[in-house]
Design brief:
The complex is a heterodimer of chains A (351) and B (573).
Chain A (H helix, E strand, L loop, with lengths): L1 E4 L2 E4 L6 H7 L23 E4 L6 E2 L10 E3 L3 H17 L14 H9 L15 E2 L5 E4 L8 H9 L5 E4 L6 E4 L15 H5 L5 E3 L12 E6 L8 E7 L4 E7 L12 H5 L14 E4 L2 E4 L2 H19 L6 E3 L5 H15 L4 E3 L4
Parallel strand pairs in A: 1-5, 16-17
Antiparallel strand pairs in A: 1-2, 3-4, 3-5, 6-7, 7-10, 8-9, 11-12, 12-13, 14-15
Chain B lengths: L3 H13 L7 H11 L6 H11 L3 H10 L12 E6 L2 H5 L2 H12 L12 E6 L11 E3 L2 E3 L4 H12 L11 E4 L16 H6 L4 H8 L2 H11 L11 H6 L10 E6 L9 H7 L1 H15 L3 E6 L4 H16 L7 E6 L9 H8 L23 E5 H13 L1 H5 L9 E8 L5 E6 L4 H7 L7 E5 L8 E2 H4 L6 H6 L8 E6 L4 H15 L5 H18 L5 H14 L7 H15 L1 H7 L2
Parallel strand pairs in B: 1-2, 5-11, 6-7, 6-9, 7-8, 10-14
Antiparallel strand pairs in B: 1-3, 3-4, 10-11, 12-13, 12-14
Helix pairs in contact in B: 1-2, 2-3, 3-4, 9-13, 9-16, 10-13, 12-13, 13-16, 21-22, 21-24, 22-23, 23-24, 24-25
The chains are: A alpha+beta (351), B alpha/beta (573).
Chain lengths: 351, 573
């Protein structure tokens, strides 16, 4: 259907919201609580727009367009409403960007930039920083929380770990882990979904703190090396140091849709660890020595051929791994059946 | 540990509701009562396990509602002093100050011997019988300093004194308050003797569509505050629906200045039950809920007894009613927050659409109406829409209970036809105590009117709208010339900030900021910028929030500033 946004004709699909149609057409409507994975919540009120024929402002995250709808996203009324919301958030939280790990990736910063706002104007009390540092992998800075509810929805509905909720009400309402436990003492398994979905610097990845600015890293896609699910990873690589400084799940990936487990998200220190094997080792006289791939493969091939010749092909067996790709597994079993000549082949995921 | 007795009570509650999670709120209250007014984290965990919800959810619910004393040491007698606007106008602040002095503690504290906890609370819907103190579950009304002294002396001896007190009322229509003065009016036999359940009998012979048509024809509008046409709302139920239809009575009565539903439920519970049973017949509902504010514990008991009586008498053959007690949250008067609360959740409003008629309680079609709305239905069905329309002007048909509080000589509830003049009502309420300065005529959430604007006001929807205010819940608060409007604005605003559910940003943070700006002004430290901040906040928040609570505070505060600006400016440096 045809609608107009700020006088510009835009094509909207049935079932889309105004926000989605605008986004597809390259028109920015700020949002803070909305995330495509957890849906519309109607909480932040920053996505309001004016629609011709409707007296009240409407939330673009929830209203679906109708044929011929005329929408305006930058009227005085819309901007005044958005500025008040952002002003209230900036005035009631410790939204300092300088050393914030979310700098450059912060949706509140994006809206403030869009509206040309530097800091809050309501100065009725000092806002103190409130932190919960108890969790091994996730930093909680409560005074940066904007109560958008994304983490609560993600924890309960997306990953269904059901650790998070809200406690108290009014301006005292804030997120709670179990029955008011520090995050590190709660039943949280630190999958980090909450940190990934947090629009601000309230929930951030501890391992990445101070490692590299968001704009200084390159995103490289990969598959998680741990289990057989094959979650799609985004490796955030600092090219200057050639180091992975953060891992996030790839949103929209059919395997994991952005979700990861604690190992996939935070267990990447092995990549650059000094103990990591980077070359084959051959044991001679009870001691390992470094060897080249060619030498190692030649040695193994020789030993396999020797066993086959002495004891027959069925004296050998192969065990495939869930930690490698389907293609590698296929090649491995083919190798066993044709090159070695045995059907003694199994896979750890068949258990 | 929760006792086996309470555990089995909770288990039977879990089977009473269509979904067991709905038992969370009553379960928490049962445990709190067993634990002498206190609720620990361990108790909450135990309840969570029993009811089958997460610890976080149970903790979130327990800390959302004010009546749960989570991790607080509450004394043997919890003295809860209402200081909301109607109470303040009746001198509640003096009562609170007296108690602070007498007990040697401030509000929010407990005496060293653990005997008394003093708490300042929001409107207890006792507006015509203020000042009021709720001691644990019991209301003590019409208090004076002398009566408070006697109350404390008695409590010190471990005795809860008798709490009976008189209140003013009157009725020219004799419908909603017709049984008010009748002895044993809560009993089914008395109700039936006075013609009760005749309308239900008639409704059971009518086609459901015919009942809906009659209610539509009557022009009855919702008596909770929004004034939405009842018949039209009933017509929103989806056609060819295969899910259960739930009927919910909103008896949360939290709007300051409003204490009318209480009169019906306390003195004529069968009138409400009959109204609901007729609506259930019309809408095809098999299960209804009365969501009653938790402070009205004794009224909930009255309702439960009446429902049992009606069941035994065969009046509720195909329809059952569960009385669900709230636990202290104004926002639960909003229908989707109320539905969430019945589902055992934090009382936070939902996004609309979907509207409850399409997807409400347990995601099923749900109709929510106010107590007075349901109580008006038997008359319409029995006597016909034409008779109903004889009361009041065409667009505001019917009778209404006006709750009058504040500076009048006989504050009380008065049943009059819609369109009655403000002056006639004030006369019925014994006239103004002092010189009339202003009045808020539709519950706290509507625009204040000056004495001049009140002169020729008629109490109906159109006349109130023409004056830039609303009839709302018809709770009238009369203000005489000894009150400072900025101070009342601050007290009103503190209420809304306290009751904000915290779900959407403008209400969550904006209500707090408005309080702070007003606080500064009232304390004499304010500047022009603070007044500009108040105006910017209330001017922008109207229409910006997820639910009507944003409007509920921005409209009255804005009107107070606009109409009494010199009083605000006089306080500014």
């Amino acid at each position: 259907m045809q609608i107009t946004i700020n006088g510009r004709p835009v094509e909207a699909k049935p079932g889309q919201t105004i926000h989605q149609a605008a986004k597809a057409a390259g028109i920015y409507i700020p949002t803070l609580c909305y995330h495509e994975k957890v849906g519309a919540a109607g909480k932040c009120r920053v996505c309001v727009v004016e629609i011709e024929g409707m007296p009240a402002l409407q939330t673009a995250c929830s209203v679906e367009p109708r044929e011929g709808m005329k929408i305006k996203t930058r009227t005085d009324r819309v901007l005044a409403a958005q500025k008040l919301v952002v002003d209230l958030l900036l005035s009631t939280g410790t939204h300092d960007c300088l050393a914030c790990d979310q700098n450059g990736h912060c949706e509140l910063q994006d809206v403030a930039y869009y509206l040309g706002m530097e800091r809050g104007s309501f100065k009725y009390a000092d806002v103190e920083s409130v932190k919960d540092d108890s969790s091994e992998f996730v930093s909680v800075e409560r005074s940066k929380c904007i109560s958008c509810g994304r983490c609560v929805a993600a924890c309960n509905n997306t990953v269904t770990n059901r650790v998070l909720d809200f406690k108290y009400r009014g301006h005292k309402a804030e997120i709670v882990f179990d029955d008011d436990k520090p995050m590190g003492e709660s039943s949280c398994v630190q999958c980090g979904e909450c940190a990934q979905i947090c629009p601000v610097g309230a929930l951030t990845d501890k391992l990445s703190k101070g490692k590299a600015r968001r704009w200084d890293t390159e995103k490289v896609y990969s598959v998680c090396p741990y289990c057989g699910v094959g979650c799609k990873l985004e490796l955030h690589v600092d090219r200057k140091k050639n180091e992975i400084v953060r891992i996030t799940g790839a949103e929209g990936a059919p395997t994991n849709n952005g979700m990861l487990c604690v190992k996939g998200r935070y267990g990447y220190d092995f990549v650059g660890h000094p103990d990591r094997l980077t070359t084959p080792l051959i044991k001679e006289n009870g001691k390992f020595r470094e060897a080249s791939w060619d030498e190692a493969i030649t040695l193994v091939a020789g030993k396999l051929a020797e066993i086959k010749q002495k004891h027959g092909a069925d004296a050998l067996m192969g065990l495939c791994s869930a930690k490698v790709t389907n293609e590698e597994n296929y090649t491995f079993q083919k190798f066993f059946r044709t090159a070695i000549g045995t059907n003694n082949i199994d896979h750890c995921a068949r258990l | 540990m929760i006792s086996a007795k309470v555990k089995s009570k909770i288990e039977s509650l879990m089977t009473r509701y269509p979904r067991k999670e709905s038992a969370l709120m009553p379960a928490l209250m049962l445990v709190q009562k067993e634990k002498k007014n206190n609720l620990s984290k361990a108790d909450i965990e135990e309840v969570a396990k029993l009811v089958g919800v997460t610890d976080a959810k149970a903790f979130g619910v327990a800390t959302f509602y004010t009546m749960y004393n989570v991790e607080k040491k509450v004394g043997a007698y919890h003295l809860q002093v209402d200081t909301n606007l109607p109470a303040t106008l009746a001198g509640a602040k003096k009562i609170l100050a007296h108690l602070e002095k007498k007990l040697g503690i401030k509000a929010g504290e407990t005496t060293a011997d653990g005997m008394f906890t003093l708490t300042e609370v929001e409107c207890l819907a006792s507006c015509g019988t203020c000042p009021v103190i709720q001691v644990n579950d019991t209301y003590y009304e019409n208090l004076t300093v002398k009566k408070v002294d006697a109350l404390i002396e008695s409590l010190k001896k471990g005795e809860m004194p008798d709490n009976k007190t008189a209140s003013h009322w009157g009725s020219t229509c004799k419908v909603l308050l017709k049984n008010r003065g009748v002895k044993d009016a809560t009993k089914l036999a008395v109700y039936k003797k006075n013609g009760g359940y005749t309308a239900l009998g008639k409704a059971l012979t009518m086609a459901p569509e015919a009942i809906i048509a009659e209610v539509k024809e009557s022009g009855l509008k919702g008596r909770g505050g929004a004034g939405f046409p009842t018949g039209t709302k009933w017509g929103f139920l989806p056609k060819n629906n295969t899910k259960p239809v739930y009927l919910v009575c909103n008896a949360d009565e939290g709007e300051p200045g409003t204490y009318k539903d209480r009169q019906i439920m306390e003195y004529d519970p069968h009138l409400l039950i009959e109204g609901m049973a007729i609506a259930a017949r019309a809408l095809g509902s098999k299960l209804g809920f009365i969501y009653i504010r938790g402070e009205f514990d004794w009224i909930a008991d009255i309702l439960e007894t009446a429902i049992e009586e009606a069941k035994k008498d065969g009046q509720l053959k195909e329809f059952d009613i569960i009385v669900h007690r709230g636990a202290g949250a104004y926002v639960c008067g909003e229908e989707t927050a109320l539905i969430e609360s019945i589902e055992g959740k934090r009382g936070q409003p939902r996004m609309k659409p979907p509207f409850p008629a399409a997807q409400g309680l347990y995601a099923c079609p749900t109709i929510v109406n106010n107590v007075e709305t349901f109580a008006s239905v038997p008359f319409i069905v029995e006597k016909g829409a034409a008779e109903f329309k004889k009361f009041g002007p065409a667009e505001s048909a019917g009778f209404r209970i006006f709750g009058i509080s504040g500076n009048v000589n006989k504050p009380g509830t008065y049943e009059y036809p819609m369109g009655v003049s403000f002056n006639e009502l004030i006369e019925a309420a014994g006239g103004v105590d002092g010189k009339l300065k202003a009045a808020i005529v539709g519950g706290l959430s509507v625009a204040i009117l000056t004495a001049d604007e009140l002169k020729d006001l008629k109490m109906d929807y159109a006349s109130c709208a023409a004056k830039g205010t609303a009839l709302g819940s018809a709770g009238i608060m009369v203000i005489n010339d000894q009150w400072s409007i900025p101070e009342l604005a601050l007290r009103a605003m503190k209420f809304y900030a306290h009751e904000s559910c915290g779900k959407c940003t403008p209400c969550k943070e904006g209500s707090k900021m408005t309080v702070r700006a007003l606080q500064k002004i009232v304390s004499g430290q304010g500047t022009k910028e603070d007044l500009a901040n108040v105006e910017r906040l209330v001017g922008t928040i109207k229409g910006l929030t997820l639910c009507p609570v944003g409007e509920a505070f921005s409209v009255p505060i804005r009107a107070m500033v606009e109409k009494f600006r010199p009083e605000f400016e006089a306080l500014i440096k």
